[in-house]
Amino acid sequence: MNYVDLFRATLPETALEIAALFVIVVDLGFLRRATTKTRVAVAALIGVAGCAAALWAVYAASWAGFSADDDLLLAAGGTAAVAQVAILVLTALTLLLLIDSEFTRNPGEFVAVILMAAAGGLIISAAQDLLVIFVGLELLSLGLYILTAFAKQSEKSAEAALKYYLFGGMSAAFLLFGFSYLYGLSGSTNLHWIGGQIAVIVALNGPSPLLYVAWICIVAGLGFKVAAVPFHFWAPDTYEGAPAPAAAFIASVSKIASFGLLLTLVFSGLVPGGLLEAPRYYGEHMLQSYYLAWQPLYAVFLAVAAASMIAGNLAALVQVSVRRLLAYSAIAHAGYILLGIAAQRVYTGQGSAYEFFLSTAGSSNRCASAVLYYIVTYGLTTIGAFGVVGVVERATGSDKLDSFLGLQKRNPLLAAVLLVLFLSLAGIPPLVGFWAKFNLFAAVLAVGAGPIPFALVALAIALSAVSLYYYLQVLKRAYVMPAIDDSPIEAHPVTLAVLLLIAAAVLVLGCFPALLQNWIAGFYPSM
Prior knowledge:
527 residues; two-stranded antiparallel sheet; 22 helices
């Protein structure tokens, strides 16, 4: 074990932890008698500086993973690098939106917890070992529970945190139970070794029932993290009860980290290189047995994706709270992303398994790129949406639909930002949300086999039209329906500047989608 390599590989996490410590020292040691606004601003700016240092460290440590005894523990480049950069940028935006908040008298601790949770997200994104994954997940999860409960004067915040904690503990138990079975089957905690061992076992002896139990438990545990049906019950209460910056962080950074981990598990664990790089050594029959053995698990993924798309969109139609509407929207978007992860490897058993392998061997990078594009753009848009909701909520005392009445007259810039972000979430061109869905659905159709992927893509497109309806319900109140109160809604200059920046990024990336696509593709040299 080379500790110099370990330090290089964990340099981004180290930068965030140092920044978290510095925030607490400055806030409690030097600013105890300063005004709350001053303390919030200083803590947020230090946190942003820590994110900038960590961002530099991600590029400085690029392609410098960490191995111990020839087992890769932390990866660099590829999915890990894209997810880590996105996590750091979105964390910095969340901290900038915090500047106008007044829900806590302890801003230093709040910023420190955000930075430590973000460090957990960085670990998850790069982890290649079951133990490292679990450590990162717990660091992220514990931070999210604390952030949810940070508005001490709010009963909704306490209730949401308790529900989040209870569901989170149960999901961690499922995840750990599934990991223990994977270890028992393979004798290792390293994902690549697990994949290779299970591939040989399945190809030679057929699937073990314990393998199905293990992956069902893992799907349940990670389904909670990404708020997929039927593991989504915590999301509406948490999005509604948590402070607006915490809800934005949960809806964006937590999603990117969790889906980054899911990508790692699917593309590194379920598709092991040991068998697939040399299928001729195992023969056509063994390769066919291997593919068919995984189909029940992919069927579970597809079922969860379909249920999430349907339940999320239909439940959002009846919401009167914009926060809860965004929660159910997040559940629907989780379904779209799961579709992109799972549908690409559907093998019906018809035709040559070796030809199917050749036809899908290059699909991993394409699907991974489409999923990463989706989660990055969704995270950016969601942070902006919660930023607008937070401003309106502070001015009106509510996040109900009627709180947005006449927003176009009360604050035209804020209404314009809301228009851009909500239309992007609905997938309206030329905004970036359209290209995110287009790339994802195109990748599914390009590499999927059989009618199931086509039917699910058609369902996703139809439900995207449904989502436009409930997004327009908010925009109708902002632009069409008259205001009950004509008093202007003021936004802090920094908050307004960040929201305008996010809206501009959504518009520019929509008009020039290749900018983000090429940046993501740069981390996949084989594309």
